[in-house]
Amino acid sequence: MQLTESDLPALARGCAVLGTGGGGSVETAIPSALQALREHGPVPLVRLADLDDDALIVPMSSIGAPTVGHEMLASAEQPKRLREEVERIAGRPISAIMAGEIGGSNGVEPLAWAAQLGLPMLDADGMGRAFPELQMVSMHVAGLTSDLVILADVVGNVAALRPIDAIWSERQARALCVASGASTMMANYLMSGAQARGAVIEGSVSAALDIGRATIGHADPVAALTERLAARRLLDGKIVEVERNTGGGFVRGAVVVDGTGSYAGRMVRIEIQNENLVVFESGEVVASVPDLITVVDTQTAEAVSTETLRYGQRVSVLAWACDPLWRTPEGMAVVGPRAFGYHIDYRPVEEHVHVG
Amino acid sequence: MSADPKRDLKIGIDVGGTNTDAVVLDRSDAIVARTKQPTTRDVTDGIRSALAVVLGELGERERQVGRIMLGTTHATNAVLQRRGLSRVAVIRLGAPAATAVAPLTTWPADLREAVEAGSVMLGGGHFVDGWPIAPLDRDGIRRFLGSVAGRTEAVAVTGIFSPASGEQEQHVAEIVREELGADVALSLSHEIGSLGLLERENATVLNAALYRAAGEVTRALDAVLAERGLDAAAFFAQNDGTLMALEYASRYPVLTIGSGPANSIRGAAFLSGVDEAIVVDVGGTSTDLGVLVRGFPRESSFATDIGGVRTNFRMPDILSVAVGGGTIVGGTPEEPVVGPVSVGFRITSEGLSFGGSTPTLSDAGALAGRVALGGGLRPPARTRALLDSALRGADAVISDAVDQMSLGRRDRPVVAVGGGAFLVPDVVTGAAKVLRPDNADVANAVGAAIALVSGRWETLAPAGEGRRQAIEEASEKAVHRAVQAGADPATVQVVEITETPLSYLHEPAVRVNVKAAGRLGWL
């Protein structure tokens, strides 16, 4: 399968839905993908099963302050510099690049890099959604180590870090990122095809595309989206309260949605840390991380990011099951409700009883 | 500056989609003349006839007119219709950064075709901390200018992080003048927009593309004034509800986009005497809602799309719903269909109240006694039921929209303005009360006539010790800009300071945006 310019709107829509409120605004990632696809042509989307055991898979992402990234855009040379260093260290060519996080702009950007490099994109990612912290990736849960981090900045500086663990990886990458003007490009968790099996979340890119296509032009986009995701439609209603605090590099807060129509008389509260974490109704948890919780526009089914939630918006709240990897004890330790400071036991969204 | 007592009349003109309105205000801001004329394809004809009517009403006092304030859709139309646009050479400074997206990549092909004389990404620009990304590529600039000479009317210059320091863009402006002559039109991004490279660059290029259209309308206004032998100073309304002098407007035409709703909100405030309110402007086809905060329109925090181009300059936060005086009513009394189609200006021939056969919301309003139209409307029972149920539907749409704009604050009044203001019900959920000021149908022209003059400055400041000093400097610059734009220095005040914290930097920093505004200096 080939990804072209015409796939961009659906991919962006799907990535926004999988962003569960975070992952960065997909709008900001579209221009570079547009230019790269026009200049370099379509990008092949490959499945993990199609790659050999000794294939080289490279997750790539951009890191830094979103405000800076929005002003100082990437250089067309950055992915090339990153590739040169990766291939020099690995001693073999890259087979495919992968999105670290499919949710939000981070799911769309790698398409631009794949096109610029003339490389295929792997139909997989490290989350199947968006998460706020760097260690919250499937590769970490699967026991792969982050012992090699390669950074390339806008002027061409390249750095290869050999951190002793994930915490140092984050700390050193952040320091270098700041020195590079608070915006840089990163490759980490370099994997062979064999290592990737069971360590990545497969089908994420095609899932995002399907989600986008299911809703565009549909007469009842929210119903179509709910069906495609096999989601629970927790509530339709009006946003009546938005609390938002910025601190420690995260946006924390909560939003209250008051039910309307067949949901009248019910109310839910969604708690947020960059992404939507937990939904409460009448004091009871009705959905929580790592299951996916997305707020969409009731008319268009377009995802509403946590930054653009606003009083009076008419929204539908959807929740659906995460990848099984996150439900293992190892996954739960990294992204379960307790990893976000909630003293609650996780219950899969499909097992919650209807409260109203 | 003291006022010349004989030159104390001012004229406000607003060119809308349907009507061109003009009002004359005296020294105490009382309305002494007013008119509504149809907007013409060439907007200057509508302006000319509206002026002729109000000046005719003034008679002898015509000589007392000292100022004319114009709110016009000229620039918006030029972009939407891709008509009368200048060809622009686009220079971006900051390579190798940002080369992943070339200038104008996301523009609609036809608009890009009409505007782009050439574009280039060259060394220059700065990191967030002020460190140069690359040395300024002077030779590259000269070579590029040589390649577009004779094919370009204007040059747009955008440097990475130029809102933090505009010196480099100014320096490039000098090179452009040396190469292309002192008359070439220049649009510098740090004077146009805030952080967000592509959106600011888009706004800067649009601004450059609008020089010709801006020149046309300013020359036309000059010509009308000369024809009438009027020695009045002319000002243009801009998107934040304030004015800029004619000369300034000809350099920043893009800022006139969005002035219509801003004028209507400011005019509604003035006519009703409140400075915190939700303004509901009901026209023939749609209703625009805006919010008045401390006397100015609340601004939208989202990117604005103009003719298919994303920009980031500040626009009033407007919500439009498809409810207007001419909105066609269909369906059944049980399930009425209200709009979105409207008979528009044909209401006076097609509406039931005017002997026509199309049920409209105006007819529903007349039936409910909210307005008197034509001679008594006596429709059959079923039509009566349909109109009644449609009006309740329209009331709910307006109430819902008011609630949405209120952001949950229910203590502010609604001010109903526009030709269809009677459609706003007396009780609106989400509002304390409904105010219906006199002359509400020409609120936008009044808004232009009473507008203040403003200036803005944006900069990045350290979050610690230096923050206060940076805010003071930014305030001084904003005040200076307001005075440059024509404000009386004695009345200029800082009306707004917004600080946005930035993370992931060496030291915590904030983005500071200051706005100053004052009354027009007397002549």
Provide a concise account of the structure shown:
By secondary structure, chain A is an alpha+beta fold. Helix content of chain A is 29%, strand content 28%. The longest helix of chain A has 14 residues, at 166-179.
Features:
heterodimer; A: 356 residues; alpha+beta; 17 strands; 28% strand; B: 523 residues; alpha/beta; Nucleotidyltransferase, domain 5; Rossmann fold; nine-stranded mixed sheet; six-stranded mixed sheet; 23 strands; globular; hydrolase activity (chain B); ATPase_NBD (chain B); N-methylhydantoinase A/oxoprolinase/acetone carboxylase beta subunit (chain B); Oxoprolinase-like (chain B)
- Note the gap between the termini of chain B: 7 Å
Our count of domains of chain B comes out at 4
CATH topology of the largest domain in chain A: CV3147-like fold
What would you call the shape of chain A? globular
Task: Name the chain pair whose interface involves the most residues.
Answer: A-B, 39 and 41 residues
> What name does the CATH topology of the largest domain in chain B carry?
Nucleotidyltransferase, domain 5
Strand content of chain A: 25-35%
CATH class of the largest domain in chain A: Alpha Beta
Order of helices and strands of chain A: EHHEEHHEHEHEEHEEHEHHEEEEEEEH
CATH superfamily of the largest domain in chain A: CV3147-like domain
Radius of gyration of chain A: 20 Å
Question: SS-based structural class of chain A?
Answer: alpha+beta
